[in-house]
């Protein structure tokens, strides 16, 4: 396996539509292995092939419950909306609030060409949506919430979530929110 270079938003390849994967061969396996290694090394939760300059419809995702490989994914249904902070390995240091489906049903092939159906929600749905967008040449800065929550509101949300997660009394000093960021296209 090898770490590949992640292209950044200045590279016009990120705006192009990726082509279907047709050959489920050793070369695809190497690409997917490299993508996973590159994602983990960057502490990312998802990576699309176009981000390593390969215009094919291949994605790796791991939100902490195991690696998923999505080849030629198709969205079967979407439900609800969620507005969460989001980032991208191709836009380092940029975090904005986006609008995404709360739940998604997606079918996709694995590296052997077998089809699987995934029902995902919450953060995993946000991640699936973000990565599938990459295959269409769409960046998360095109999914911004027009009425984002204020930094103070995000402080409160993160504080509450952290308290819930750790079952502890909220401690403001532990809250970190990216402030004063503006969409920079
Ligand atoms: Zn991305």
Explain what this protein looks like in three dimensions:
The strands form 2 sheets. Strands 1-2-3-6-7 form a 5-stranded antiparallel β-sheet. A two-stranded antiparallel sheet has the order 4-5. The protein is built from 3 helices and 7 strands. The two termini are 33 Å apart. It is globular. The chain folds into 2 domains: 12-148, Alpha-Beta Complex (Peptide Deformylase), CATH 3.90.45; 149-185, no CATH class. The protein has helices spanning 26-41, 123-135, 151-166, and strands spanning 46-48, 58-61, 68-79, 82-86, 96-100, 103-109, 115-121. It is of the alpha+beta class and 185 residues long. Zinc ion (ZN) is lined by residues 88-90, 130, 134.
Order of helices and strands: HEEEEEEEHH
Please report the distance between the alpha carbons of the first and last residues.
33 Å
CATH topology of the largest domain: Peptide Deformylase
Question: Any low-confidence stretches, pLDDT <50, length ≥5?
Answer: none
Number of domains: 2
CATH superfamily of the largest domain: Peptide deformylase
Helix content: 10-25%
Tell me the radius of gyration. Answer: 17 Å
Strand neighbour order, sheet with most strands: 1-2-3-6-7
How many separate helices?
3
CATH class of the largest domain: Alpha Beta
Helix/strand-derived category reads alpha+beta
Query: Main sheet, how many strands, which sense, barrel?
Result: 5 strands, antiparallel
Q: Tell me the β content.
A: 15-25%
Task: Count all strands and give the number.
Answer: 7
Give the averaged pLDDT, no decimals.
Answer: 92
- Based on CA inertia axes, which overall geometry fits? globular
Q: At CATH's second level, what is the architecture of the largest domain?
A: Alpha-Beta Complex
| Bound chemical compounds | zinc ion
